[in-house]
Amino acid sequence: MPELPEVETVARDLHRWVAGATIVDVEVRWDRTIRHPEPAERFALELRGAVISRVGRRAKSVLLHLADGRAMTVALRMTGALIVAPPDTPDDPYARVVFRLADGRELRYRDVRKFGRIGLWEGGGLLRSGGHGRSGARRGTREAATQYRVGDVFGRHGPEPLASGFSSARLAARLRGRSARLKTLLLDQSFIAGVGNIYADEALWRARLNPIRAADTLGPDDIRRLHRAVRSVLRQGIANRGASFSDYVGADGEPGANAERLAVYRRTAEPCLRCGTPIRRIVIGQRSTHYCPRCQPDPLHVADPVGAATEVPA
Ligand SMILES: [Zn+2]
Question: Is the pLDDT confidence value at 203 over 70?
Answer without folding.
Answer: yes
